[in-house]
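User: Batch of two.

Assistant: Item 1 of 2:
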Amino acid sequence: MTLRFALLGDPVRHSISPAMHRAAFDVLGLDAEYVARRTAPDEVGPVMRSADLAGGNVTLPHKLRAARGLTRPSAAVRATGACNCWWRRADGELAGDNTDVGGLRIALTRLGFQPRGARVLLLGAGGAARAAVQAFLEGGVSSVEVLNRTTARARALRDRALAHATGADHPTDADRAADANRATDAGYAANADRAVDAVRVVAAPHPGAMYDLVLNSTSLGLSPADPLPLDLDRGADGVRFGAAFDMVYAAGGTAWTRHARALGIRAMGGLEMLVGQAALSLERWFPDRAAPFEAMREAAVAELAMRPGSGPAARSETPRQRRER
């Protein structure tokens, strides 16, 4: 019997996720299919519970709503309040995870970033930033400074992360036993004390600071007319950056990653994170299989290159760029 998986979101027409998962199913010889399904907010729960789907992914703007529809949320879902991957268990209950957390870790490893003891500047405080904060806390960073246009939202992000890390919303023992990603819980608990001081809200980069990583989790860069999320040429205040990661991705790189590289800062766009979270999602659905990461990445790159505006002559002015977080 063919197993059916779907990406739920609005819009989803742009998504390259079907190409990645179809490539993986082919490599693994799985009788499965994956489609993008435009879904209205009130349809999310019913679609996830529908008998014709074995599982799937969730993208903007439904990740918070999807988390509320789970009966077996993972530690990452409980920490972030967001679900981007779900599947139906043998007993019929819906389990879910936030594989954006692990997907970001995979991407940052490929960038060469080592989180232990690092100082991070995080731009933005939305759903993508929630996953980033959890990945950083698990990795043992020294600090995450959150810079957002709306200070109240940045504080809400900090408060949620700290509430989870310090035990205000820890799961019960029964929840832990049923957790689809049990190892993550131990990581959160081990980092709880340090998390109290690690996540800070700032109004600007600290003058003279050396940040090991600056990460853009905002939507700036989705439109060619957008300003840069942050000017990394900080001659006036002496701020330096070891690396830059943009959750937006584009054929040929985003304007911000090109800006970083021009300044000698190693940089990476969000495609690696997208592939990483997709690979982890597949391993949640098929726990006895290892996701073919490189095949999925090749399919993603090929699909992105075929999109309008992705040719070499158009890259510098109208890059095709999306963020599925």
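Item 2 of 2:
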Amino acid sequence: MESITAFFKRVQQLLQIPHFSWIDIVEVIIIAFLVYHIIKFVRSTRAWNLFKGIAVVLVFALFAAIFRMNTILWLLGKGFNVGIIALVIVFQPELRNVLERLGRKNFLSLFTNIDWQRGTTKRFSDKTVNEMTRAVFDMAKDKTGALIVVEKDTQLVEYIRTGIDIDSLISSQLLLNIFEHNTPLHDGAVIVRGDRIVSATCYLPLSDNLYINKDLGTRHRAALGLSEVSDAVVIVVSEETGVVSVAENGLLQRNMTPETLKELLKTLQNKGQEESKISFLRGRRKNAEEVDQ
């Protein structure tokens, strides 16, 4: 073993390979993982164009350094500190989105099948699943616009406060009555927590994604906007076409059927089995539309 170790050390010296330990390998893997996910996230937002603009400025700075353009380098150096602050201000929505997604990640589930954050309790009952599905497709048949938010782990208190308190058990008749045309509560979103409708006529944040299909209206933009800043699932019924869509994690799945919607709600119902089932369902939904493409 000593001779083998001496041989590899000799080869390392001849090839001038720097000494590294397993800690260095772990660091490289972590940095590569972070850089990959940062670039993947930035490409799906408006920050990508700004990122390309920054790359152009860096190339220009390199060009100035090579040809020793001291005045330009001085100006770039003075503007560097201000530029960092400006970037934080410009990318504030994206940075907030990244931190919120990071906070929702369950890193223990990457290394073990045990999910420490989720129990086996149900978010809502089978009756709630059936009542919501029936109401959604009754409204779709009559082309009644609707916006139903299903709260998950992230509390939506700030959006609940913008509406009118309901605090009632979910029923298809109540949902139909809320979204009926020319009624006091039809405008805005309904927020569902567990088996109860918490609030109606709630205002949701509109998505600022520039790549959203221009055919989508305010309801769909509001659904996407909330799904970008929380883990909620938002059901949308189009008033123009009667098409049922679901917004989740910044993605819009269109042309839902009663079967696929009920399957999705069943997935959300069981906290402990949610992650594996959602990934399975997404593989089956060929009609899902990724709005960031």
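The first helix runs from residue 2 to 15.
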